Amino acid sequence: MTETPSIDHSSAQKIVVEVGDLAFTADKNSVLSTYGLGSCVGIAAYCPEKALGALLHIMLPDSKTNPTKAEEQPATFADTGLAALFQEFESRGSTLKQVHFFLAGGASFMGADALFKIGEKNIEAVKAIFQAQQITPVDEQLGGINNRTLHLFNGMLELQTPSTKTTFSLK
């Protein structure tokens, strides 16, 4: 997507999406925000036809590691979180082809030799699910060593790192 000027969402009602959480809004006066995406992956989604935005903050790639947690908090995992995201858009009358997606996160703070490589595994899981659904995100900022913060406001996505602030249109 084309980079656009910074957006002002300072007067908007903030809806904070915590780790392992999913939120939707069609309120033009609300901003969905998730902070400190490290190895976690954030998925910002917007349906222009319905003016409906969503933000998902996944922590782990696969719900099989903790089925009880997956039932209690499906957004924790890539497989169950994305299923919930897709299902909710469809239940609100959107087809997945109408929805514009942006992926961010999956950083590796421990270096290339890290034992668990959670960020890498999260990226692989999310991309595999998108590929299986034949969905191509409009853009992504994945991997690396920086944490990221996302703010989704009326189809505009602001991505912040410790040293940058970039805005993308999901309209």
Explain what the structure shows.
- The chain has helices at residues 67-72, 78-91, 118-132, and strands at residues 3-4, 13-16, 21-25, 30-37, 41-47, 52-58, 100-105, 139-142, 148-153, 156-160, 165-169.
- With 171 residues, the protein is of the alpha+beta class.
- The chain has one domain (13-169): 60s Ribosomal Protein L30, Chain: A.
- The strands form 2 sheets. Strands 1-11-10-9-4-2 form a 6-stranded mixed beta sheet, with no helix packed on it. Strands 3-6-5-7-8 form a 5-stranded mixed beta sheet.
- The termini are close together.
- General form: globular
Terminal Cα span: 10 Å
The largest pleated sheet is described as: 6 strands, mixed
- How are strands sequenced across the largest beta sheet? 1-11-10-9-4-2
Fraction in helix: 10-25%
Q: Give me the CATH architecture, please.
A: 2-Layer Sandwich
Low-confidence stretches: none
Number of domains: 1
> Would you list the SSEs in sequence order as H and E?
EEEEEEHHEHEEEE
CATH topology: 60s Ribosomal Protein L30, Chain: A
Q: How much of the sequence is in beta strands?
A: 25-35%
Mean pLDDT: 92
What is the gyration radius calculated from CA atoms? Answer: 15 Å
Number of strands: 11
Please state the structural category: alpha+beta
CATH class: Alpha Beta
Number of helices: 3
